[in-house]
Write a structure and sequence with these properties.
Strand order of the largest sheet: 10-9-8-11
Radius of gyration: 22 Å
Number of strands: 11
Number of domains: 2
Shape: globular
CATH class of the largest domain: Alpha Beta
Structural class: alpha+beta
Largest sheet: 4 strands, mixed
Distance between the termini: 34 Å
CATH topology of the largest domain: paralog of FGE (formylglycine-generating enzyme)
CATH superfamily of the largest domain: paralog of FGE (formylglycine-generating enzyme)
């Protein structure tokens, strides 16, 4: 992934920097899709996921809808139908094509989507080049938001594709011959506990650099003293939980999860496969022997909570996690860009949070119900995109993202 943190730390842009940032991120999306066939680009394996070509079109739709149509007089949309096809969930914009049926949109084809992206890129670059005389600081902030929005979709492209390829019984590789350069190596690390003092802490984004609206406003939050594990829970530790009957013992599980486990006969995390009495894990590099030293991944909130309960620990709150991540005295391992780490915090608004006016206000606020917060980013998160205050959120049964857990007490 490209390294873009220096741009998002800036409080303002000059036109060359903004154009470079825009084109860099757009190119990265196309790079992700480059190894894929047309069939790969089309597949949708579940309602929560989307086809790769839909992601490429939707991120272009966002720039066209929120920037170009508003800023360019008599702007000619590439195709009027795209407002319906590629609107994700913005009710203020109009109706949306059903999410679960996105894989049925064989047309427009990939070549048309490529032309669409070029159409948008040309118009966006022309706009940015002349921004000093044509667009406001608020518009620049909106462009920056949509650049970050595309980075979010880059992560989704990888996780959605992984789920789709997993449905193939040959367990294909996403990008052949790339394993050695992209593989993370782990060594056996002892788990230790880092203690943090009770006190009144600042929580939320702390300066004027880019952040999503749900990361603020910054506010005071009192925490009792707490401890966090120095590293993430490993495959080996989670395997012991399984071998000790963790999936057969109701005392570890929340009621909603236990009912699902019995119905689906769940026995292991997503992407774990047992062959010839040995455990393997499906990765973007194909099926690999389970590395016991690597952090356990693709577990949902219920599994994370059950494991923590089984070892008489708990999940951290999002405030505890953020305070630890910002602490310069103690450096915990694998805090950023390894796995999204489940917290016990429900996704809700911070004190003083207000939804912005207009359709863009639907970006985060309306999802603040029935979901849990995750922190830290994953190996699929673009470099420079993550920060200590970043709040991701998913439903408790979600497993297809790169999710893991860190224990607290």
């Amino acid at each position: 992934m490209v390294y873009l943190k220096k741009y998002f730390e800036c409080r303002c842009f000059i036109n060359d920097e903004l154009k470079e940032l825009y084109l860099c991120v757009r190119k990265e999306s196309e790079s992700i899709s480059q190894p894929l066939s047309s069939e790969d680009m089309q597949i949708q394996s579940m309602a929560d996921a989307s086809p790769i070509k839909w992601h490429l079109a939707h991120t272009s739709w966002a720039f066209e809808t929120f920037i170009l149509k508003d800023q360019i007089k008599n702007y000619q949309a590439f195709d009027a139908n795209f407002e319906y096809f590629f609107n994700s969930y913005y009710n203020a914009i109009g109706e949306q094509f059903p999410r679960a049926q996105r894989g049925l949109l064989s047309r427009p084809n990939n070549q048309t989507i490529t032309k669409y992206r070029k159409h948008v890129d040309i118009a966006m670059c022309e706009l940015i080049e002349n921004y000093e005389n044509s667009i406001s600081k608020e518009t620049i902030k909106l462009i920056t938001l949509l650049i970050n929005h595309e980075q979010q979709h880059q992560e989704l492209m990888l996780t959605d594709l992984k789920h789709a390829l997993f449905q193939n019984p040959t367990y294909p590789e996403y990008k052949p011959n790339s394993r050695s350069s992209l593989r993370n190596l782990y060594i056996d690390q002892p788990l230790t506990w880092i203690e943090f003092e009770a006190g009144l802490y600042d929580v939320g984004h702390q300066d004027e650099s880019f952040h999503f609206d749900n990361e603020g406003p910054q506010h005071k939050y009192y925490l009792e003293s707490f401890k966090l594990a120095s590293r993430l829970v490993t495959n080996g530790e989670y395997l012991k939980f399984m071998e000790d009957g963790g999936y057969q013992d109701a005392k570890y599980w929340l009621s909603e999860a236990w009912g699902s486990i019995k119905d689906k006969k769940s026995m292991a995390p997503m992407y774990w496969i047992k062959k010839d009495n040995k455990w393997f894990q499906y990765t973007l590099f194909g099926l690999q022997p389970l590395d016991l030293n690597k952090p356990v991944q693709h577990i949902n909130y219920f599994e994370a909570n059950a494991y923590a309960t089984s070892v008489n620990k708990r999940l951290p709150t999002e405030q505890e996690w953020e305070v630890a991540a910002k602490n310069e005295q103690f450096k915990l391992n694998e805090m950023f860009n390894h796995l999204w780490q489940w917290t016990s915090s429900s996704y809700c608004a911070y004190p003083g949070f207000k939804i912005v006016n207009g359709a863009i206000g639907e970006y985060n606020g309306k999802f603040m119900v029935n979901q849990y917060v995750l922190r830290g980013g994953s190996k699929a998160t673009p470099q420079g995109h993550i920060r200590a205050s970043y709040r991701n959120f998913f439903y408790p049964n979600a497993s297809w993202q790169y999710t893991g857990l860190r224990l607290a007490e």
